[in-house]
Each structure stands twice: as C-alpha cells, then as structure tokens.
Amino acid sequence: MSVRSLWRLWALVLMAAALAMLNLQTPPSDDMTLVAATRKEARQPNLAPPPVPVDPAPALTKLSQSTLWGPLAPRPASVAAGCAAPPAAKFGLTGFYVRPGTRYVIVSFDQEALPTRQLKLGDKLPDGSRIERIEPDRVLARRAGGKTSISAPSARWLPITPGLSAASPNDKR
Length: 173
Hints:
Layout: H1 3-24, H2 30-41, H3 57-64, E1 66-67, E2 70-71, H4 77-80, E3 91-99, E4 102-109, E5 117-119, E6 130-134, E7 138-142, E8 155-159
Antiparallel strand pairs: 1-2, 3-4, 4-5, 6-7, 7-8
C-alpha cells in the first residue's frame, strides 16, 4: 500500500466516525426543556430599598455626645460657655523653594479652611517660634521667649515632609 492510499483510508474512517456520531446523537428530551424553564423561573425577587430614618436629629445628637470609647468627659464651664479659645491648628512644613537670594518654606495646616502660607527667614511659625535657618530638607526654629534647658532646647530642627505634619518646637518630648 502506498502512502497516498493510507491517507485516503484514514480520511474515509474519519468521515464514517463523524457521520456515525451525528446519527447517534439523541434529540433534546423533555427533561432539558424542564431544566431551562426552571432556570428562568428561579430568579431572585427584587429587594426593597433600605429604610431611611424619618428624622436623623436624635441619632446625630446621641452620636455627638459619645465616642467609640464611651461618653465624652464633661467640659469645664468656661469652655462650655465659649470663653476659651479654640485649639491651635496643627501645621506641617510641606515644601521648600528658593527665589533669587531668598529661601522660603511652605507651611500647611491640617484644617482645610486655613490657607497654606510661605514663610522666609525671621518669620514666625504658627506656634510662635521664629525661623532662623532654612535648608532643603529641614528648618531651624527658635522657641519664642522660652527658657533653655537640656531637655527642652531653645532651637529645634523641624523636618520638611510633604503631606506629613511636624511637631511644634514648643512640644516637650
């Protein structure tokens, strides 16, 4: 037998097998249509929207009087009456730039309502300390009218960290 006749025989066998499979396939039964119909009917029901409280004021009042760790401590009368000043905003040194002959540092606040400020040598930081030296990565600030001691020096280097707040030079650590 030649190679050509072997290929022809092989092709005939494949054709006979394909035709036999087509003839032996069973038509779809009633069980298949039942499964398809069941799948269509088995849909999830529509969910009702979550209930919305009619008046959230009582819940907000209760929330404002408590924290995650329990109720807030009672305030002194002077603070409750509004006599005390609000706490100072936290600030951070977030940038540095140089204009011809003058170095500036950018001061950002944690409260969005306060604008960003640019300060130069001799200007006061928001905590009252004066800027004595500005470097690309840090600022030397001298404490305003404070006593000098070993544990709390009068001058302190503050880092310039984009997006991070730095501790005040008046903080005692």
